[in-house]
């Protein structure tokens, strides 16, 4: 690709009247150079079993090619047609909530033989139809694929085979998972019950891991089919999503992005985020860092919002700010869900780039400026490469483990809350990060690794983290790290188990804090922010120095936060859940100790700085203003060229960044 992809999802099948040529003309005027099609409309392509009609696909392909707009074709497998369910009711996933009911999308059992038969058939028929079309630059596999909690009898049998392959004997399973508790042990594989109702966290978490593997296998299976047809130079991608809290929030519980992305040429993601006064850019950055880190390369944003909901309709300038924020994190594509607002059905009020009148509007006009700038600046700002010194280790297994064993029964806080507590404060400090996972091998490429709530981890991973510190690395471990092995068996040593070696601290007791704060306010925050909440470990240093103690008449003898020199490195251990203000201070101390603190960290939110090296080997720096207030800064870097205006900028020059705006500089 020679330019940034700027696109939309386009569904000719949803249009209330004929307007394909009008849409294309408006796309060209907006600088749209790619559309995604086909992945949502299986029932149009196969209205009856074995009856195929790709008229809508072909007419869009032909029209787009004539206009010079590229096309990404999706496999239409994530929403099954009615005839399939009528003929094969068992294609609907049986979950812990009972049999599935038809209506919504993504309700099928992705292991069901009938579903897989029809899915392969529609993929092959579609690929046979489109494979030679010159408009196509790539293919998207399925859509936001997950396992949909499929848990029916056939899935349970597959899980038993998985357990047999892994543990060989029921006795080995019983011992590792502690199934003797409440007479749950199994003495013959044929006696293995459905795990839907299990009370054993080890077994339940292993089933979740197995379900995530079903996603890996399903996606790899589709990739294998599409590879038989794709032409040289065409990519295959997928649009992964994140934990959803009304917007993209954290690590996806039902997919391991690092393993599921392996068969794809390019990782794609869907990133939705708060807008208007709530726009911070954090979700854009978080989702981008996850996507980029899966392959350590640039990625696609296959879906993000244009207007969407009434509380997301962007203020003037925010659509541009959002688009360039994606690029600054390493995106080579920004595409909207979707081109037009549809006029009926479930997503009627999830508005597209065009409103329901399908006419130009202020958001569309702003999109035109993005398209023009992307075209003009592509050679400068695409393929940006990053060499980050800081990494956050994320773990699907720990996320699952802590869903079984929560911080306490009264809280809704979960693993992703702690990940975001750390990530958000790094972001506000202008620290760019990679996201690594338990199997990441090259830890020594980082100066600082932050390990949030690594509740579930094999000995080998903890030993590697110890070695990282001993060899000169800096690490921050939070509470609940090192607690259990890979099968959620609690270690029998004092906690935090194996990482005591690097952290120099032990504890045996943990409590729910009430009216607890840090003694002496060591991080010099407001009194209201000096509190500990939800979870605290009563730490006793072995070799560590105490960085903070608890201020409480019952717990005052115990440490709350410690730091330990180990080998050539240094490990910080945070034994409690602290405020965002304290977390920011802890991170700042660690960054300075690891020699990561620099010019960017002297500025902070709402000014956000992102950097990357372009194809010419030059550093590109983005300065974003996520606020209603005009921001003025003294430019701290070498002589540069401001790319939007083509003006020279010198060190010490005053830069003014308007509300919800940005500037892009190429360092000379």
UniProtKB/TrEMBL annotation:
<dbReference type="InterPro" id="IPR029062">
    <property type="entry name" value="Class_I_gatase-like"/>
</dbReference>
<dbReference type="Pfam" id="PF02449">
    <property type="entry name" value="Glyco_hydro_42"/>
</dbReference>
<feature type="active site" description="Proton donor">
    <location>
        <position position="144"/>
    </location>
</feature>
<feature type="domain" description="Glycoside hydrolase family 42 N-terminal">
    <location>
        <begin position="10"/>
        <end position="376"/>
    </location>
</feature>
<dbReference type="InterPro" id="IPR003476">
    <property type="entry name" value="Glyco_hydro_42"/>
</dbReference>
<protein>
    <recommendedName>
        <fullName>Beta-galactosidase</fullName>
        <ecNumber>3.2.1.23</ecNumber>
    </recommendedName>
</protein>
<dbReference type="GO" id="GO:0009341">
    <property type="term" value="C:beta-galactosidase complex"/>
</dbReference>
<keyword id="KW-0326">Glycosidase</keyword>
<comment type="similarity">
    <text>Belongs to the glycosyl hydrolase 42 family.</text>
</comment>
<dbReference type="InterPro" id="IPR013529">
    <property type="entry name" value="Glyco_hydro_42_N"/>
</dbReference>
<keyword id="KW-0378">Hydrolase</keyword>
<dbReference type="GO" id="GO:0005975">
    <property type="term" value="P:carbohydrate metabolic process"/>
</dbReference>
<feature type="active site" description="Nucleophile">
    <location>
        <position position="303"/>
    </location>
</feature>
<dbReference type="InterPro" id="IPR013738">
    <property type="entry name" value="Beta_galactosidase_Trimer"/>
</dbReference>
<dbReference type="GO" id="GO:0046872">
    <property type="term" value="F:metal ion binding"/>
</dbReference>
<keyword id="KW-0479">Metal-binding</keyword>
<feature type="domain" description="Beta-galactosidase trimerisation">
    <location>
        <begin position="389"/>
        <end position="596"/>
    </location>
</feature>
<feature type="binding site">
    <location>
        <position position="143"/>
    </location>
    <ligand>
        <name>substrate</name>
    </ligand>
</feature>
<dbReference type="InterPro" id="IPR017853">
    <property type="entry name" value="GH"/>
</dbReference>
<dbReference type="Pfam" id="PF08532">
    <property type="entry name" value="Glyco_hydro_42M"/>
</dbReference>
<dbReference type="GO" id="GO:0004565">
    <property type="term" value="F:beta-galactosidase activity"/>
</dbReference>
<keyword id="KW-0862">Zinc</keyword>
<feature type="binding site">
    <location>
        <position position="105"/>
    </location>
    <ligand>
        <name>substrate</name>
    </ligand>
</feature>
